[in-house]
Structures are given as structure tokens and as C-alpha cells.
Amino acid sequence: MFKGKGPSGFGYGSSAEDVTHGLDLTGRTILLTGSNSGIGNETLRVLAKRGAHVIAAARTVQKAQAACDGVVGETTAVACELSEPASVQACAAEVVALGLPLDAIICNAGIMALPKLNQQHGYELQFFTNHIGHFILVTSLLDSLADNGRVVVVSSGAHNNAPPEGIQFDNLSGERGYNPWANYGQSKLANLLFANELAKRLSGTGKTANSLHPGVIHTNLARSMNPIARVALSIGGPLVLKSVGEGAATQCYLAVNPGVEGVSGKYFADCNESRPSSHGRDEAMAAKLWEVSEKIATEVAA
Ligand SMILES: NC(=O)c1ccc[n+]([C@@H]2O[C@H](COP(=O)([O-])OP(=O)(O)OC[C@H]3O[C@@H](n4cnc5c(N)ncnc54)[C@H](OP(=O)(O)O)[C@@H]3O)[C@@H](O)[C@H]2O)c1
Questions:
Q1: Which CATH class for the 25-301 domain?
Q2: Mean pLDDT, to the nearest integer, of 46-59?
Q3: Which of 15, 170, 215, 247 is the most buried (most CB within 10 A)?
Q4: What is the pTM of this model?
Q5: Which residues line ligand 1 (CB under 6 A)?
Q6: What residue's CA is closest to ligand 1, atom 47?
Q7: C-beta of residue 67 within 8 angstroms of C-beta of residue 77
Q8: Any catalytic annotation for residue 178?
């Protein structure tokens, strides 16, 4: 693991505080999902501390409000249950009604490695929550994105664990085979491909889209892992994993740092551009995923 600094001047050990140091974000509005836990909660804290107005989304408005109450700065709590399209649409409508151009949307919320197949609206739940929920949210808000607004999609190095063929377009229900880690990997590959295709569609507008791997951080994300692995993580994690502050750095960097002004369609890790898997670079797969996601969004909204 390379722990030094990369071309951006930041690296593995940089924190969200480091990558926003000296920035005055007063007047900026940033929508963030998953604001009540883990690296999302740290992202909320640091961006609000730097002066941004953070629209903090969580599954319920109570969770979002509790997150907002725990930080200093300007925040607005909104409910957004990503696995429920009606909730996502209501969130988007609430955000549009605020009438504020969005300087960034950070798609941070996620679930990982559910032991058994779970479905929502007939689709495997990790794909539906991590990708489709964010797809509906972001595509509903593109008109609200500021002229140089940034969409930041939290993917993972686990996109490398997607099935050998990449997105299993013939098995999005999971019924023809389910594996907790491969399906998590598929959902994270979908996050990455979504950002790539969005970047292509935003090309020439000044608006950007990028994806990232935050690093490996001990958070509530491990809640579905077996108890022994969770105990091992909580004991050994602080020694070998990134801190929550370090884990939140790359998404904060992409959302607000001037160093990535105009950069779009890239995948980042440790606050520097990184090379995704071959599927993560597959433009045809990204285009197909967009098409399929639009169809699913229409179908589940009906
Ligand atoms: N931690 C890591 O090592 C790691 C590595 C690579 C990528 N990531 C990615 O980083 C992101 C943040 O993860 P984290 O580590 O901070 O995990 P976390 O502490 O578990 O936070 C995940 C957040 O997502 C929210 N969420 C889950 N399901 C949702 C749903 N259906 N609708 C709305 N919100 C929902 C959670 O809300 P509740 O608290 O209400 O459940 C929570 O706020 C995820 O996208 C994850 O895939 C993390």
C-alpha cells in the first residue's frame, strides 16, 4: 500500500479536514446521502464546518435531523430511503423546492454483502439501493445541478469483485445466482459505470461526474458480516484500516477541492486518479447500464 502523497498533493493518509483546509465553502450547497453514519457523517461534519450548506439525507428525516444536530454549520435534513423510489422522488422534489443550485451531489449511502438474497421491486437489493436509488435521485436533480456542479459517486475497490461478465443484465433479480460479495461488487461497478456515463452525457456543460474508492474503513457497513469478522475488525481495524476522517477525504476532495475543477469521468482512490477494472472502463457496458436503469426507474415509478 502506497501511503505517500500523489500528484494531487494528497494521499492515503490525508483526511477530509486536510483536503478542505483553507477552503471557504460559504454559499455552496451540497446534497449528501448516508449522512448519519460512517464516512458520510464525517463528510457532513467537515463540509458544514467549512461553510457549505449541506442537505443531509438519511433513510428517515429523524435520522437526518439527528445527524444535522450533531454538527456545527448550516444543514437541512431530508428523508431519502434509496430502496423506495417514492421516497427518492419525494427527496428530489424537496430539494428542487429549496430552489438552490446544487454545487455537488455526493452519492455516499450504501449497503454491503447481505448474507442472503434480498429484493426490492423484483431487483437484488444491493444493486437497487446502491445504484438504482442514486440513479433516480441524480437524474431527477440534473436541472438543479449548478453550472459547474459536481456529481460524486462512492464506488469501491470491490467493483473488482463483480461477476466475471461485469453487470449481469440477465440476473438483476439475483434469482439466477446470488453471492453477497459478487453482488456487492456488481453494485459498486454500477456506481462507477453510472458516473462514467453521466460524465459523458454532461460533457461540454461544465458539470462533472466522478467516482471513487474511499479506502477500507471500519464503519457500520460491516453490519452484515459474521460476528467473528466484525469483532476482528473492531479490534484490528484501527491499526490497519483508514480512519473515518481519511475515508471521507476522497469524496470531499472530489466535491469541493479546486484541484479537480473540470475533471470528469474519472475514478479516484486516496485523492488521486486511479485505474478501474477493465469492466470499469467498458463504455458499452456503461451505456447499456444507463439504458436499463432508465427502464427500471420508469417501471418502478409506475
Ligand atoms: N467502509 C469501507 O471500508 C468502504 C469501502 C469501500 C466503499 N465504501 C462505500 O462507502 C459508502 C459509505 O459507507 P460507510 O462505510 O460509511 O458505511 P455506513 O457507516 O454503514 O454508512 C452507510 C450509510 O448508507 C445509509 N443507507 C444504507 N441503506 C440505505 C437506504 N436504503 N437508503 C438510504 N440510505 C441508506 C446508511 O443508513 P442507516 O444508518 O440508516 O442504515 C448509512 O447512513 C458506501 O457506499 C460504501 O459502499 C465503504
A1: alpha beta
A2: 98
A3: 247
A4: 0.97
A5: 33-34, 36-40, 58-59, 63, 80-83, 108-112, 129, 154, 156, 213-214, 216-217, 219-221
A6: 110
A7: yes
A8: yes
